[in-house]
Amino acid sequence: MDLRPFEAMAKLCLSENERETAIRRAEALLESFYAIETVNTEGVAPMVSVLGIENVLREDTVSQAISRDVLLAGAPETSGGYFAVPKTLD
Questions:
Q1: CA distance 72 to 81
Q2: C-alpha to C-alpha distances, 79 to 66, 74, 75, 83, 90, nearest whole angstrom
Q3: CB 7 within 8 A of CB 13
Q4: How far is CA 90 from CA 78, 83, 84, 86, in A?
Q5: What is the CA radius of gyration of the chain?
Q6: Which residues lie closer than 8 Å to 51 by C-beta, 6 or more apart?
């Protein structure tokens, strides 16, 4: 398993020891997925969560909109009517 392409995408520079550790952990994770594949799930209903929790949603109602000026009033920096944030991509 060659991690160098993934390192480049994540902008990481791993030492050889770190790379070997990451490979061992990734291989162990894959082995656990392969073990899960062997479990017979015939007749088992799909689940979103193992907990018996149901999402309680509020009714979707129209309310008074807040003006852009009020929303941007507390912003540290704005640009053209929008929040200004630091550039994250080259």
A1: 8
A2: 19, 13, 10, 6, 19
A3: yes
A4: 21, 19, 16, 11
A5: 24
A6: none
Q: How far apart are CA 82 and CA 27, in angstroms?
A: 45
Token output for 4 = 């160098």
- Number of H helices and number of E strands within the chain? 3, 2
Q: What is the pLDDT along the chain (90 residues), one digit of tens a residue?
A: 777 788 888 888 889 999 899 889 989 999 999 999 999 999 998 887 778 777 888 888 888 889 999 999 989 999 999 999 988 887
Domain ranges of the chain: 1-39
Q: Is the pTM of this model over 0.70?
A: no
Spatial CB neighbours of 68, under 8 Å, sequence gap ≥ 6: 81
Which residue shows structure tokens 């997925």? Answer: 33
Q: List beta partners, residue 83.
A: 78
